[in-house]
Specification:
- This protein is mainly α and 462 residues long.
- Helix content is 64%, strand content 3%.
- It has 22 helices and 6 strands.
- The strands form 3 sheets. The protein has a two-stranded antiparallel sheet with strand order 1-2. Strands 3-4 form a two-stranded parallel sheet. Strands 5-6 form a two-stranded antiparallel sheet.
- The two termini are 30 Å apart.
C-alpha cells in the first residue's frame, strides 16, 4: 500500500494552512547569489556556507509542516505521492546535469573522467556526502582539486532526509509522538553542534592516513560538517509552529516579529564573520580579527583565533529559525514584504536549477574558455554569476517548469495557488496553465536542495 491511514486520536496541527510566503523565495534568491559569489571568488566570504544551514532549516520546516497539514486535511499521508513529487522535482535536472558533465569531460577534460565517474555514482545514489564529504580538502587536497560536482553533497543530505521524514512523521502523528520527536531531534542537534564546536568533525575519529582510508570511514569522520543538525532544527521549528493556533496569542504576535528580526540580522552577520575582505582589512589597519576564514576544526591548532566553522553553522541555523517562523505566521511583517521583491522571488524559484548547473557553467567559462586569465577580481563575481543565471534559463524553462506540471499529477491537495492572481485554483485547471503560475507550496512541497537544495520552495534547497 502507498497510503497509510491514521489510527484514532492522532496528533493534529493547530497551525493555519501554510499557503504562499514570498519571503521564502526571496531568501532562496539571496542564497543562490551567495553561492554563485563564493564559488566564483572563494576569498569573498567562506562563511557564506552558512546559507546551506538556512536552506536546510527551511526545507525541514516546510516539508514537515506540509506533511502535518496533509494528514490533518486528509487523515492520511500518501507515500506514493510524496516520493513521486520528490523524484519528479529532483531527478531530471540533476541527472541531466551529470550527463552533461560527462559529455564535456569526455570531449575536453579526460584527465577528470575517472574522478567524475566516481562522483556520479555517489551523486545518483545520493551518497555524495559520504564518499566526498565536506572538509575533504583538509584530508585529501589532491582529490578535491579534481572534483566537478561537489555541490551534490547537500542534495544527498536532503534526499536522505526525505527518505526518512515522511514515514517518521506519519508514525509520530499516529502515536502522538511529534513533541517527543522534536525534543529528541533538538537534543541530537545540540550534541552535534557541541561536537563541532569542540573540533570533532564526525562520529568516528579521522583516520591517521585519510588519503588511503576506507572512503565510508573517512566520510563518517567528517559527517558533522554536512550539518544534519540544521535539518533537525527545522523539524523542531515545524512542530513548534504546529502548536501555535491561529490567530497567534497576543504575546507571540507582539514578540515574534521582534525576535525574528534579531534572528535575521544575527544569521546575516554570522555569514559575514569569516569574510576574507574583513580579515585582510583588519590586518592592514592592525586590528585583531579573530574569525579565521578557513582552517582545521582543532581548537588546539586555532590558538588565539576562532574558526568560524566551529560555531557558525549552529549560530546561523538557530538565528534564522525565529525569522522563518515570523515569515510563516506574520505575513505582513515588513522583512517578509521586502524579501518578496519579484526579481528575488524569480531567482529563488530557479535556485535549484542554478545550484545544480552552475559548476559546469563555471568550468566551461574558466577552464575551457580561459576565463581565469581574463577575469580580474573586481568583475569576476558579477560576470560569472550573470553568465550562470542566463545559461540556466533554458534548463529552468525546458526541464524544471515542465516537470512542475507533471508533478501536479501527484499533488497532495485539490487546489494550488496561481501566482499571477493570488487565488487558489483547482489542480486540474493548473495543469493546463502555462509555466511559472503555480506555487509549489500549494502542491505540497518544501525546499529541495538548495544552494545547496539550495536547494527551493517547490521541493524542499534547496
Amino acid at each position: 500500500m502507498t497510503t497509510v491511514g491514521a489510527t484514532s486520536s492522532p496528533y493534529v496541527s493547530e497551525a493555519p494552512r501554510l499557503g504562499f510566503v514570498g519571503g521564502f523565495d526571496g531568501v532562496r534568491g539571496i542564497g543562490i547569489l551567495m553561492v554563485l559569489s563564493n564559488h566564483a571568488y572563494s576569498a569573498l566570504s567562506p562563511s557564506f556556507a552558512g546559507i546551506i544551514d538556512v536552506f536546510f532549516v527551511m526545507s525541514a520546516f516546510l516539508i514537515t509542516t506540509l506533511l502535518l497539514q496533509e494528514h490533518r486535511d486528509q487523515n492520511t499521508i500518501s507515500m506514493r505521492k510524496f516520493y513521486s513529487r520528490r523524484a519528479i522535482r529532483l531527478l531530471p535536472s540533476a541527472y541531466l546535469c551529470i550527463a552533461a558533465w560527462l559529455v564535456v569531460t569526455i570531449l575536453f577534460a579526460r584527465d577528470r573522467l575517472s574522478t567524475l565517474l566516481a562522483e556520479s555514482a555517489a551523486a545518483v545514489t545520493y551518497l555524495y556526502e559520504i564518499f566526498f564529504p565536506v572538509g575533504l580538502g583538509q584530508l585529501d587536497p589532491k582529490l578535491v582539486e579534481h572534483l566537478s560536482i561537489d555541490q551534490f553533497w547537500s542534495l544527498a543530505v536532503e534526499e536522505q532526509f526525505y527518505l526518512l521524514i515522511a514515514v517518521t512523521v506519519l508514525v509520530c502523528i499516529r502515536k502522538r509522538w511529534m513533541v517527543q520527536l522534536a525534543v529528541g531531534l533538538a537534543a541530537v542537534a545540540t550534541f552535534i553542534g557541541v561536537q563541532r564546536y569542540m573540533g570533532i568533525a564526525g562520529p568516528v575519529p579521522i583516520p591517521s592516513d585519510p588519503a588511503h582510508a576506507n572512503p565510508v570511514v573517512r566520510g563518517l569522520s567528517l559527517l558533522w560538517l554536512s550539518r544534519p543538525d540544521s535539518l533537525m532544527w527545522g523539524v523542531g521549528l515545524a512542530v513548534l509552529n504546529s502548536k501555535l493556533p491561529e490567530p497567534l496569542p497576543a504575546v507571540w504576535r507582539r514578540w515574534l516579529p521582534r525576535v525574528g528580526l534579531v534572528g535575521l540580522v544575527v544569521s546575516g552577520v554570522s555569514m559575514l564573520l569569516a569574510s576574507g575582505f574583513l580579515y585582510d582589512l583588519a590586518n592592514k589597519v592592525g586590528v585583531p580579527y579573530p574569525f579565521v576564514p578557513i582552517g582545521p576544526l582543532s581548537m588546539e591548532q586555532a590558538g588565539d583565533r576562532i574558526y568560524w566553522i566551529n560555531f557558525g553553522h549552529t549560530l546561523t541555523a538557530l538565528a534564522f529559525a525565529p525569522a522563518m517562523l515570523a515569515m510563516a505566521r506574520v505575513k505582513e511583517w515588513w522583512p517578509n514584504r521586502a524579501l518578496s521583491w519579484k526579481p528575488l522571488r524569480f531567482l529563488g524559484r530557479m535556485s535549484y536549477t542554478v545550484y545544480v548547473w552552475h559548476t559546469l557553467v563555471y568550468f566551461i567559462v574558466l577552464d575551457l574558455l580561459g576565463g581565469n586569465e581574463r577575469l580580474g577580481e573586481k568583475w569576476r563575481v558579477p560576470i560569472l554569476a550573470a553568465i550562470a543565471i542566463v545559461a540556466c534559463l533554458p534548463v529552468y524553462y525546458g526541464v524544471e517548469q515542465r516537470m512542475l506540471r507533471v508533478k501536479l499529477r501527484y499533488a497532495a491537495e485539490k487546489e494550488v495557488l496561481d501566482l499571477n492572481t493570488g487565488k487558489m485554483i483547482p489542480v486540474e485547471q493548473a495543469r493546463v496553465m502555462h509555466r511559472g503560475m503555480v506555487s509549489a507550496e500549494a502542491v505540497g512541497d518544501g525546499l529541495d536542495g538548495g544552494p545547496a537544495d539550495i536547494a527551493p520552495h517547490d521541493e524542499g534547497t534547496r
